[in-house]
Design goal:
The longest helix is centred in the N-terminal third of the chain and has 6 residues. The radius of gyration is 26 Å and the shape is elongated. By secondary structure, it is mainly beta. It has a four-stranded antiparallel beta sheet. This is Zona pellucida-like domain-containing protein 1. InterPro entries: ZP-N. It holds the Pfam family ZP-N.
């Protein structure tokens, strides 16, 4: 909750993103972009090494707010003015997100069952994908409930059971 700070100014909204979690996740400052607009240089942040901790800064001009995909919704409500009288007050709701590019490949696994019919009847041949911690395929990988951390080395083996000699 302290990794992002938002500063609302009269002409600019400034977002400061703690750079350490970004770096730990395997990304750089140039991988972060507003609302998936990775191709637009003005929608990406820039790193500021002069602060502690180091931050990635996004400056969003209110004049060009929607150019990077941010949404502005203005609603009107009754509220007291400076003199204590009720008047109409306009409230601006600005929304958007910062994300990283999609990985080039997505790895997932599901059990696969192959039914094979031969002259003597039917049998099920099952393919299993087994995950290991080591390249010798001895220590099976235990996946925590929260998932694996990025850049964890995983070794995969495919095992077929209940096959005939063909």
């Amino acid at each position: 909750e302290r990794d992002i700070s938002v500063y609302c100014g009269v002409q600019t909204i400034t977002l400061k993103v703690n750079f350490c979690p970004v770096l730990f996740s395997g990304y750089t400052d140039s991988d972060l972009a507003l609302n998936g607009r990775h191709g637009d240089a003005h929608c990406r942040g820039f790193i500021n090494n002069n602060t502690f901790p180091t931050v990635v800064i996004f400056s969003i001009s209110l004049a060009t707010l929607e150019s990077c995909g941010n949404a502005l919704v203005v609603s009107t409500a009754q509220g007291p003015n400076a003199y204590g009288n009720l008047s109409l007050v306009q409230i601006g709701h600005i929304s958007g997100y910062i994300d990283t590019p999609d990985p080039p490949t997505i790895i997932s696994y599901l059990p696969a069952a192959i039914s094979v019919k031969d002259s003597n009847g039917t049998f099920i041949s099952t393919l299993n994908l087994l995950l290991y911690n080591d390249s010798s395929y001895i220590q099976q990988l235990a996946i925590p409930v929260a998932g694996l951390t990025l850049k964890t080395r995983v070794f995969a083996a495919v095992k077929a059971t209940n096959l005939d000699r063909r």
